[in-house]
Design brief:
alpha+beta, three-stranded antiparallel β-sheet, 25% strand
């Protein structure tokens, strides 16, 4: 079993929350100016204020998602366990759709692994940890591609059986 911990910066999360609240209040103030009669001719300003307010609310709400906090990944032999703030999520390797390795130009600085399981995406950063990234990626691809290869072999055998049955029925 391989364990990997991703630490998220609480200062960044709090900064985005404050920025979201500020943008929401500023957008609401612009809309208030339009509807109070002070800036009745500035419809574009009111629309812009509404959009800024909506974006501020979006920033604030999305800072409470589970992936904005510290996450522990446990890569077992049969399943991937993701421990986050709201509990834990367990995926078998059959449920994982895709595993991608993202390598920048200077691969010694950082690498990323993107895991897609259904509608969820998990981006695992590795800063100055190329060996850990390679080990986890190898572990994942061995299990996920083995599942894909097994499904492909089964599909090919089924198609060969159906072709042989069709050829036998044509001969009769």
């Amino acid at each position: 079993m391989i364990r990997y911990h991703v630490k998220r910066n609480s200062k960044s999360r709090n900064t985005l929350r404050y920025l979201g609240v500020f943008l929401f209040v500023f957008g609401a103030w612009l809309v208030y100016l339009f509807f109070s009669g002070i800036a009745t001719r500035h419809l574009i300003g009111a629309i812009l204020g509404a959009l800024i307010g909506i974006y501020g609310a979006y920033l604030f709400i999305h800072t409470f998602e589970a992936d904005k906090y510290d996450i522990d990944y446990e890569f077992g032999d049969t399943e991937l366990t993701i421990k986050h703030r709201r509990g834990e999520t367990v995926y078998t390797y059959d449920q994982i759709d895709d595993v991608s390795l993202i390598v920048p130009e200077n691969e010694l600085l950082y690498s990323l692994i993107l895991i897609r399981a259904g509608r969820k995406k998990y981006l695992i950063p590795f800063s100055y940890k190329k060996e850990a990234c390679d080990a986890i990626y190898k572990h994942l691809t061995e299990r996920v591609t083995a599942k894909d290869l097994l499904a492909e072999i089964q599909n090919e055998s089924k198609s060969e059986e159906s072709k042989s049955e069709e050829s036998e029925s044509e001969e009769n």
